[in-house]
Write a structure and sequence with these properties.
- Chain A: It holds the Pfam family DUF3015.
- The complex is a heterodimer.
- Chain A is mainly α.
- Chain A has a domain at about 75-150.
- In chain A, about 50% of the residues lie in helices and about 0% in strands.
- Chain A is globular, with a radius of gyration of 16 Å.
- Chain B folds into 4 domains: about 1-125, no CATH class; about 135-315, no CATH class; about 315-395, no CATH class; about 415-625, Porin (Beta Barrel), CATH 2.40.160.
- Chain B has helices at about 1-15, 20-35, 40-45, 75-90, 100-105, 105-115, 120, 130-135, 190-200, 215-225, 235-250, 265-270, 290-300, 315-325, 330-340, 355-375, 380-395; strands spanning about 50, 60, 140-145, 160-165, 180-185, 205-210, 230-235, 255, 300, 305, 310-315, 420-425, 430-440, 455-465, 470-480, 495-505, 515-530, 535-545, 555-565, 570-580, 590-595, 605-610, 615-625.
- Chain B is built from 17 helices and 23 strands.
- In chain B, α2 (about 20-35) runs antiparallel to α4 (about 75-90) and α16 packs antiparallel against α17.
- The two termini of chain B are about 60 Å apart.
- In chain B, β14 (about 455-465) and β15 form a beta hairpin.
- In chain B, the strands form 4 sheets. A 12-stranded antiparallel β-barrel of chain B has the order 12-13-14-15-16-17-18-19-20-21-22-23.
- Chain B is α+β, with helices and mostly antiparallel strands.
- Classes of the chains: A mainly alpha, B alpha+beta.
- Chains A and B meet through α1, α3, α4 and α5 of A and α8, β5, β6, α10 and α16 of B.
Chain lengths: ~160, ~625
């Protein structure tokens, strides 16, 4: 019983965004946290679920590479969101507005007043030709924030 | 007096020191005296179901041994209650999340309300995992979300239900809100026959899972092109918490899944019934429909207010495309068509448009078109969108118009199950008949939230009087009709109209003793005319047992039109020709004119004329829906 509970607990911890966890900007969520690799915790259930979103570990920890804590924070949640919705975020960045774009900026802890400027800067440097779109977008967003918006974005 | 003093001292002990064996015995005794184990709320929290044979016996519908704290907790509400009290009063270990008060928050909260002093007697725990998941201090409201029907998967024909926990945090968009989903765990590459049989007869387990709402938005809105209708509920803060506590207890727990009844609609309704004093799920009826939950919610008052406080549509990618396209002027629509024809290479095709606004609107409509047209082919989407994105990036940021919220909502559609009384005249004879359809709608039904001009019928039986008795005139196990209309006329926005049906009925129109089992499939094309009508042509092939005059296969060619003359009057005219190849049976033509009057969710009146081989039959029917 306890074992199962802890399995659920670990997964829950992995998926939840924990505001208290400090961002470790040296971690690349794609290389160190298994994002994009779809590492699933084994919860004993069938892998494919009909009519259901089985949210057990798209942000699961690749513990051999990185520590659990460094892959739990909001920064990694933002990376995961980008991985899942890059088509929408890219499109909305090009347009300059949209709920997915707002969400990713929220996840990066950027206050609303900074959004228009940040979006403008992202549009100026957006690389539409890259293969690894989500990772490239994330790294560009982080660089833009660090350069011009560090004071308005709390998780950097 | 001595007993009172004893209880007082135990209370004092509870206040001042961590719980002891004596304390839990005291509260267990108190719970037993109050017969809390018989409380309907306790039974609801443990998902106990009464035995059909032994009315005094119960068994929980949950399959996980971890959900119970007593060895026989799945079948014994009393021992489970006593074990729960003991576990909650026990000292937590290093990880409070593993303590009963964190795993079973709804039970703990309820016991605190039922047993005076219990809240103070139990050791304090910090349930970090729950708090990270629910963020209860930010919980604002709860919404029930209806995902419209999806004909790509039999389990989704009837729509789907999700629960959404809305946050008051202004730094979160609705995509970041938590949501709860319920569904069956089906292995990859499951055989379709096994899928149907296991789904119907309990061959799968199902579970509650959670995730941020964006994942639902992606799955249903972007990948399956289904609209999500969010019904926000008017609940008190306490009720929102109560619901969230129990939702937490259910995550990852398993039930046996039955496609017809114990499905997402049933389980979500069951969850809501914890806090709503009304029946939302069917009791004796052997099926449960997602839309029925919304019909039920729409008439419930909670604390003197309508239970539904707001309804919001999250449109699918396809719906957004249609909306954007309809806003374009003629020159913009020409540009859209030209760019599609030019394989999405923009070049100078936007030049005739006078402003960046108009150019941007064309490109943004094309983004949606590409995503919808090449669904499931991400590499092609990326390749086709590349030039469009680059061109749009060179235009300025422009204000975006919000998606207009609709005036009609799914719960205003006709309810899904039907009784019908019919009176027909045929050859100067009056024929009464009764019809029952378990679900869901036909081409004449007034409905919102389903594909337009489509039909989905299941278990549809008509009994007609013949002589002194009623006989089964016709029975359809399943009928699906999908007109697959094009809204824009663009290449990817169209498909074949199709139909499938399985049933038992007369194989010619004028015979009464020639009923056979049959399977039918049809293919054709439907197009819109004006705003509220369609015309269609279909060729149906029918497989049925061969007889003296019949061969194994027959065919029906049909030409028809359906028009909404008024929201309360839909009319269908259909002409057809039946042929019985390689048999002695003569081919014949027929026509029919069917009308539905009324647009209430609860009833309609239908007037029909059917003519076959010069025999005319008039029918008037009254349908009652629930």
């Amino acid at each position: 019983m306890k074992k199962t509970f802890f399995a659920v607990a670990l997964v829950t911890a992995a998926v939840s965004t924990a505001p208290t966890v400090q961002a470790d900007s040296s971690i690349n969520p794609w290389k160190h946290c298994g994002i994009g690799a779809m590492i699933f915790d084994d919860n004993g259930a069938a892998a494919a679920i009909s009519n259901i979103i089985w949210d057990l570990g798209t942000t699961a920890i690749s513990s051999k590479i990185s520590s659990e804590e460094s892959c739990k924070g909001q920064r990694v949640a933002a990376a995961q969101f980008l991985q899942d919705t890059i088509a929408q975020v890219e499109e909305e960045t090009v347009i300059g507005d949209g709920v997915h774009l707002t969400t990713v900026l929220n996840l990066m802890g950027c206050e609303a007043a900074a959004h228009p400027g940040l979006i403008g800067d992202m549009r100026s440097n957006l690389d539409l030709n890259t293969e690894a779109k989500a990772e490239s977008y994330f790294l560009q967003l982080e660089a833009t924030i660090q350069q011009n918006y560090a004071a308005q974005c709390t998780i950097i | 007096m001595r007993a009172f003093l004893h209880i007082f001292l135990l209370f004092l002990a509870g206040w001042l020191t961590p719980a002891t064996g004596a304390t839990h015995k005291h509260f267990q005794q108190q719970a037993s005296q109050q017969q809390l184990y018989q409380s309907p709320y306790w039974h609801a929290l443990l998902h106990y179901k009464k035995s059909r044979i032994h009315k005094q016996r119960v068994k929980s519908e949950l399959l996980d041994p971890e959900f119970f704290l007593a060895k026989d907790g799945a079948i014994n509400p009393e021992t489970e209650l006593l074990a729960t009290i003991e576990a909650i009063l026990s000292q937590p270990g290093d990880d409070h999340n593993a303590h009963a008060s964190c795993r079973f928050i709804a039970r703990t909260h309820w016991l605190e309300q039922q047993l005076p002093g219990f809240a103070q007697a139990r050791p304090a725990t910090k349930c970090e995992l729950f708090e990270q998941w629910a963020q209860p201090e930010q919980l604002d409201s709860v919404s029930l979300v209806f995902a419209s029907g999806y004909l790509g998967n039999p389990a989704s024909f009837y729509g789907h239900i999700l629960l959404k926990l809305n946050s008051s945090n202004p730094s979160k968009t609705y995509l970041q809100h938590q949501s709860l989903n319920y569904g069956a765990a089906v292995p990859d590459q499951e055989n379709p026959v096994a899928y149907i049989i296991k789904g119907l007869f309990g061959g799968y387990q199902s579970t509650f899972s959670y995730g941020e709402f964006y994942k639902n938005s992606l799955t249903y809105g972007e990948h399956e092109l289904r609209d999500l209708w969010e019904y926000q509920l008017n609940l008190t803060d306490g009720e929102v918490l109560q619901l969230t506590y129990h939702a937490w207890e259910l995550i990852g727990r398993h039930h046996t899944y039955y496609f017809l009844k114990e499905n997402c609609a049933f389980r979500m309704a069951q969850l809501l019934e914890l806090i709503i004093d009304a029946r939302l799920k069917p009791d004796l009826q052997p099926w449960a429909m997602p839309i029925s939950v919304f019909h039920a919610l729409s008439v419930i008052e909670q604390h003197g207010q309508p239970l539904i406080s707001a309804i919001k549509l999250h449109p699918s990618r396809q719906h957004r495309f249609y909306q954007k396209y309809q806003q374009l002027n003629a020159a913009q629509k020409q540009a859209v068509a030209a760019i599609i024809q030019n394989d999405f290479k923009v070049h100078s095709l936007l030049d005739p448009l006078p402003s960046p606004e108009q150019q941007a609107q064309v490109l943004e409509a094309l983004f949606d078109y590409v995503e919808f047209a090449y669904l499931g082919e991400p590499e092609i989407i990326q390749q086709k969108k590349q030039g469009l994105l680059q061109t749009r990036l060179m235009l300025p940021v422009l204000p975006q118009a919000p998606f207009p919220q609709p005036e009609q909502f799914p719960h205003q559609s006709t309810r899904p199950s039907m009784w019908q009384l019919q009176a027909s005249s045929k050859s100067d004879k009056f024929i009464p008949s009764m019809r029952f359809r378990a679900a869901y709608y036909d081409l004449l039904t007034a409905q919102t939230g389903q594909p337009p001009f489509s039909g989905l019928g299941m278990f549809d039986v008509t009994l007609a009087r013949e002589g002194q008795r009623f006989v089964i005139q016709q029975f359809e196990l399943l009928r699906i009709e999908q007109m697959n209309l094009s809204t824009t006329g663009l290449p990817a926005d169209s498909g074949f109209a199709w139909k499938v049906a399985i049933g038992y009925r007369p194989l010619t129109r004028n015979c009464s003793d020639c009923r056979h089992l049959y399977a039918e499939g049809g293919l054709g094309k439907a197009i819109r005319f004006q705003e509220h009508g369609i015309v269609y042509a279909l060729l149906d092939g029918r497989l049925h047992p061969a007889g003296e005059q019949l061969n194994l296969v027959s065919a029906v060619g049909r030409l028809g039109a359906i028009i909404d003359i008024h929201p309360g009057w839909r009319s269908q005219l259909e002409l057809g020709w039946n042929t019985y190849a390689l048999s002695n049976h003569q081919s014949y033509g027929w026509y029919r004119w069917h009308n539905r009057f009324g647009q209430s969710p609860d009833w309609d009146i239908r007037l029909s004329l059917d003519n076959t081989q010069n025999a005319t039959r008039w029918s008037l029917s009254y349908s009652r829906y629930w």
